[in-house]
């Protein structure tokens, strides 16, 4: 088993590398550093594609330099961790998804060298989070100053969204395991939202009844999920339960401001079947200022593979 981390020479990937090295040391597993080189392919109109040797040579030199620097940085940070550094060829997301098969985690920066800004938020990290069978950790461009670093495992907490879906179940189990490993508490958050249809806007009685029913339903899902998924080994993990009204992504981002990490399922209850990464997960990835972990349920991952 290993922690896989993608690097590309950017400051974002340097932060991901540091986080991944510390995580590998914490787990007692190897660190697998990957650089993926996407070869430039051009051709004259209506002819076979040609890969030009000169740019490939330059790119290979840059890739080797990045991997050498990455090995040195990881070794300086965690001297006891066994590490490998591999140069892959192809489409970055596909190569990292393949590298993640059987891995403990895949760790990526929120953006890399090719990022064009928020409109094209982390295309590689988003694709990997959507398809990878391993949990995917996306390390943000910058963290809140108040947010604890990975080198301070006794501070902060692990935040997890709970909605009763299969993906949420896996997220809860992952969050509790991570909290136990770090000796942290868990904040389990269930979010509900009451649709303000016109009739409810006009009559507060309708809204009050609807709000109460939605809250009770969220509380029941939260209590049932935690009771079902916790094991005797989790007795030392303190789990705070919180039920909040609002937009799920906004609530989770706010709850995680001083967290070590936030864990979300790749999709939640009610999200469109076949959507690879749910709207809540995408929004949390986009706005969080701390590492976010995206997990899939094993059954859903198998279904996605079958769709390909």
TrEMBL record:
Listed CDD domains: USP_At3g01520-like (cd23659)
Gene3D superfamilies: HUPs
Matches recorded under Pfam families: Usp
SUPFAM superfamilies (alphabetical): Adenine nucleotide alpha hydrolases-like
Top-level taxon in the UniProt lineage: Bacteria
UspA domain segment(s): 3-140, 157-296
InterPro entries (UniProt xref): Rossmann-like_a/b/a_fold (IPR014729), Universal_stress_UspA (IPR006015), UspA (IPR006016)
Family: Belongs to the universal stress protein A family.
PANTHER family recorded: ADENINE NUCLEOTIDE ALPHA HYDROLASES-LIKE SUPERFAMILY PROTEIN (PTHR31964), USPA DOMAIN-CONTAINING PROTEIN (PTHR31964:SF113)
Protein name (record): Nucleotide-binding universal stress protein, UspA family
Organism: Sanguibacter gelidistatuariae
